[in-house]
Design goal:
The complex is a heterodimer of chains A (about 170) and B (about 60). With about 170 residues, chain A is an alpha+beta fold. Chain A has one domain: Beta Polymerase, domain 2 (2-Layer Sandwich), CATH 3.30.460.40. In chain A, a hairpin with a 2-residue loop joins strand 4 and strand 5. In chain A, helix 5 runs antiparallel to helix 6. With about 60 residues, chain B is mainly alpha-helical. Chain B has one domain. In chain B, about 70% of the residues lie in helices and about 0% in strands. Chain B is elongated, with a radius of gyration of 20 Å. Chain B starts with 5 loop residues before the first helix and ends in an 8-residue tail after the last helix. Classes of the chains: A alpha+beta (about 170), B mainly alpha (about 60). Chains A and B meet through helix 1, helix 2, strand 8 and helix 6 of A and helix 1, helix 2 and helix 3 of B.
Chain lengths: ~170, ~60
């Protein structure tokens, strides 16, 4: 069953430090757009790659952009560095990025990220302002439209629109 | 006056449903995640239905 929420819970439980980015971060900030993948930013150390393997172990993770859909269980080998991971799992698509266009690396992103309660856990989510910047940096038509929606959310927050963030 | 912020005007011109945003902002993070999950399920079901329909159609003359 596809469930981005399940993937998020697995990540939170497995323990790599991560920040939710992309469309799903938009959803958490109040966007109405539907995204079919979970994007996160992680420092892709060997230790964190091992934690990601643990998180998705029983969800048959594969590298979705490889020709033969290589299993994440066996590739990359423990001693190989990776910059990004583009995975497909039984729970859905997860893209794990080392940095975000328009913002920078994990540390830059984390500086403004917001910690939110979610499913009994705590998750870091890219700030609304950084998300707008990254969407505008991507520059595709759909990203620019999303950025407009996110700017509207920011404006509503500025107006003091009641927000339920418990 | 509420919706006079230029960002709100621009969003409205782009066809963004500002009332829907109000509704989303009134939800908790968890409720937003759950509502999104339901919407995604519908999208995936529609995609599957379209794929099944296209598979059931005879090939077009050009494709023969």
């Amino acid at each position: 069953m596809k469930s981005l929420n399940l993937l998020l819970q697995r990540l939170a439980d497995a323990g790599p430090e991560f920040v939710v980015i992309g469309g799903y971060a938009g959803v958490l900030h109040g966007s109405s757009y539907v995204t079919n993948d979970l994007d996160i930013c992680v420092v892709l150390t060997r230790e964190n790659v091992a934690k990601l393997r643990t998180a998705f172990a029983d969800l048959h993770p594969v590298h979705r952009l490889t020709h033969r859909k290589l299993s994440f269980a066996g590739y990359p080998p423990a001693d190989q560095e990776v910059a990004n991971l583009y995975l497909e799992t039984d729970g859905g698509i997860v893209d794990v990025l080392g940095d975000v266009l328009g913002i920078g690396d994990y540390a830059s992103l984390r500086r403004h990220a917001v910690e939110i309660p979610l499913f009994g856990r705590r998750c870091w989510v890219m700030s609304l302002e950084d998300l707008i910047r990254s969407k505008e940096a991507l520059g595709r038509e759909k990203d620019l439209l999303t950025a407009k929606e996110l700017r509207a959310i920011a404006a509503k927050r500025k107006q003091g629109k009641p927000e339920n963030i418990s | 006056m509420e919706q006079t912020d230029p960002a709100l005007e621009e969003a409205r011109r782009a066809g963004i449903d500002l009332d829907l945003l109000d509704s989303n902002l009134a939800l908790t993070y968890e409720e937003r995640a759950l509502r999104h999950e339901s919407a995604l399920e519908v999208v995936l079901m529609l995609k599957e239905a379209r794929a099944a329909y296209e598979k059931s159609q005879p090939p077009s003359p050009e494709a023969r």
